[in-house]
Amino acid sequence: MIIEISVAVMAVAVVVLVVFLVKTLLSAKKSLDKVTETLTDLEAKMKQIEPMMDTIQITGEALREAADGMQQVSATLFQRRKTTRRTRRTADAHAASAASDASNTSQDTSPKWMKWVDVAADVWQRLR
């Protein structure tokens, strides 16, 4: 009799265990279904966003090219500025030398229009 009761209790325990296992598996199935639905929605939204991301990528590349161009322009302007300063210093030195030579001879052999051409060339160099 004790064996029969023990077997019956074990059978009931197994049935209860199976019921809880089934409930757990059903709950896990519902969770996986929700995850599948969420992933499907996410995939659809990603497909909608893809053209915008392509546009952003193209815009980024264009901005990078523009920045590279601006960097080259900046470097060129900096280099020209250095060169202009050197040229100006050299021109000032030559002008001072020529002025001292002219004052030594105390004769002005160049016509007035030549002076204006020199002034115009100097202004042009500075503006450039």
Description:
The chain has 128 residues and is mainly α. It has a domain at 1-48. It has helices at 2-105, 112-127. The relative contact order is 0.04.
What are the key terms here?
single chain, 128 residues, mainly alpha, 2 helices, rod-shaped
How does the SSE layout of this entry go?
Elements: H1 2-105, H2 112-127
Query: What percent of residues adopt helix (DSSP H or I)?
Result: over 70%
- Oligomeric nature of the chains: single chain
Rough shape? rod-shaped
Q: What's the main sheet like? A: none
Mean pLDDT: 82
**What class would the helix/strand composition place it in?**
mainly alpha
Count of distinct strands:
0
Radius of gyration: 45 Å
What ranges have pLDDT less than 50 throughout 5 or more consecutive residues? Answer: none
From the N-terminal CA to the C-terminal CA, the straight-line distance is 115 Å
* Order of helical and strand elements: HH
Region (Disordered): 78-109
Pfam family, one: DUF948
InterPro entries: UPF0478 (IPR009293)
Transmembrane segments: 6-26
